[in-house]
Fold this protein.
Amino acid sequence: MAEMWRSPQMVPRFVGFLSSFLQRVAETNDALWIHGGGGVPPCHHKVTVFHGLSKPGITVASYLERIFTYANCSPSCYVVAYIYLDRFSRRQPLVAVTSLTVHRLLITSVMVAAKFMDDVCYNNAFFAKVGGVSTLEMNFLERDFLFGLGFRLNVTPSVFGSYCAHLKREMLLEFPSPPLHCFLSDEEPSSASAVASAAGHQHQTQLAV
């Protein structure tokens, strides 16, 4: 899997891929959740600590590159953060990844992954500074994210390998169109096609990523 991490700018290819992918998902979900398209009224939103009042001025790509540059997390943290986002989305279907939530979900998932995976990592105050939020807000983000996950943080080698394989396949395809269901379920590693085929159902489109 070493080729997943190569990049001329020394930023792992996966980091660039993940940012591009999440940007597409956020834009797609904006139409469904923020603007009320696709039969999902804005009044049905669940407003949480992950929601900003307005769309941040920094792009998802620049934001994730900033996290990669300053957080000094191991590359595996970004795969684990991706897994956490999947688990969170499945458990909290009303907290969609949109332009108002994607940045906070990213900084929180990476921080939680770094704490779980790396022997040494920065504290909440540092991640808050990297993410452009206050330390108090970072604390609330972490708390709500952990509760949203049901504190299910363990990632087995087989689950990690399944996600890596799935990500590698999707990187090769370069996502010609942004599917609303993009994760390989860690409960059913072989069901990616079944997940994708359900994209037309309204209750399924509420998945954040």
User: Anything to note?
Assistant: Confidence is low (pLDDT under 50) at residues 2-8, 177-209. The chain has one domain: 11-205.
